[in-house]
């Protein structure tokens, strides 16, 4: 079976498990992988920062928790899909965190925001 290089499609000579024809092609391949993952990380980090800023703005400086309507978040461009981690409490409710601030869907219309102290 003839194998081709993943980058330039040249025929590979040598060991049967080689996937690149040269170190140049190997370096090009891995450089593209690093660039793609860097771009994705920058994009996701931007969403997290924006979500965190929205949570801080709604919660305010002196409060540790507040209940607000969901449409407020939607108007501000909050992306519910992006969070750093989550926690399921003893009652089965899921809290989604962005660093030290969490939100929980309290009902269909309301969201509870909590700051961890």
Radius of gyration: 23 Å
**Percent of residues in beta strands:** 15-25%
Overall morphology: elongated
Query: How many DSSP-defined strands?
Result: 5
Summed over residues and divided by their number, the pLDDT gives a mean of: 89
**First CA to last CA: what distance?**
62 Å
Strand order of the largest sheet: 1-5-4-3-2
Give me the number of helical elements.
Answer: 2
Low-confidence stretches: none
H and E string: HEHEEEE
What's the oligomerization state? single chain
Residues in helix, %: 25-40%
Number of domains: 1
Largest sheet: 5 strands, antiparallel
Structural class given helices, strands, pairing? alpha+beta
Organism: Gelidibacter gilvus
Protein name: DUF2116 family Zn-ribbon domain-containing protein
